Amino acid sequence: MLEEERASASKRQVPAVTRAIAILRQLAREDEPIGVNPLARALDLVPSTCLHILRVLQDEGLVAFDPDTKRYSIGLGILPLARSAIQRNAFTALVQPRLDELSAQFGVTSIATQLTDPGHMVVVALSHSTLPFRLQVDLGSRFPALISATGRCFAAFNRIGEKRLREEFDRLVWDHPPAYEDWLAQIEETRARGFAVDPGTYISGVTVTAVPLFDASGRMTRSIVAIGISERVQATGVQVLADAMLAMRDDIANMQIGMEN
């Protein structure tokens, strides 16, 4: 038996906690508030069990309930927990001043993202451009791991089965959706050059550049992302911007190694 399997087997299962976490994650994935029955079906739960857990989560402020529609959504009570986690994240402390420098130098909105579950990234650090252009993104914003430039990096540097890759791609929402074959070619290009560019397919008129950061096992679990008006990014030069981001990534990685030694 593998060490991970032994550790998993030694853990005492707490079904109520597992179900509560599953409910919170499902609510976070939903674009609109959802009723008890469809939520229970999505999670393969007995509706009465789902309802009891929802009521407890509502009492704690982690779930919001609309009495008119009888639907539930993720509650604002989750924000202090998320904010506290972000503030205590050593990576956030390392990357924030460098994002500020990147935004000031290139006139882009700079963000750092981190994998929170197998299918989503969350913004853990953010620096807005000083230019009039501002992207509507906040700390804690969550998006599919395979979307835009970060998604090309995620697909390029993690092992994802072909069937799952196609299924996840078909769920993505773009302003100008790329053809699947073109997207696969862009993933190969990302793997070859070490960074990814989304030239306005995700957000029209906006170029997104991303570089991957890796964990100890070599998986991509974080990214540094620059978002700017396409004309300005092209005038600066995508390669120039990417080189600065790659140097920043390497600097952060070296500092993390130094902190661990």
UniProtKB/TrEMBL annotation:
Q: Give every HTH iclR-type domain span.
A: 14-76
Q: Which Pfam family, any one, appears in the UniProt record?
A: IclR_C
**What UniProt keywords apply to this chain's record, in alphabetical order?**
DNA-binding, Transcription, Transcription regulation
Domain spans labelled IclR-ED: 77-259
- Which InterPro entries does the record match to this protein? ArsR-like_HTH, GAF-like_dom_sf, HTH_MetabolicPath_Reg, Tscrpt_reg_IclR_C, Tscrpt_reg_IclR_N, WH-like_DNA-bd_sf, WH_DNA-bd_sf
Q: Name one GO biological process term.
A: negative regulation of DNA-templated transcription
- One Gene Ontology molecular-function label: DNA binding
Q: Give the signal peptide, or none.
A: none
User: Domain of life here?
Assistant: Bacteria
Q: What is this protein called?
A: Probable transcriptional regulator
Which species does this protein come from? Polymorphum gilvum (strain LMG 25793 / CGMCC 1.9160 / SL003B-26A1)
The opening ranks of the lineage are: Bacteria, Pseudomonadati, Pseudomonadota, Alphaproteobacteria, Rhodobacterales
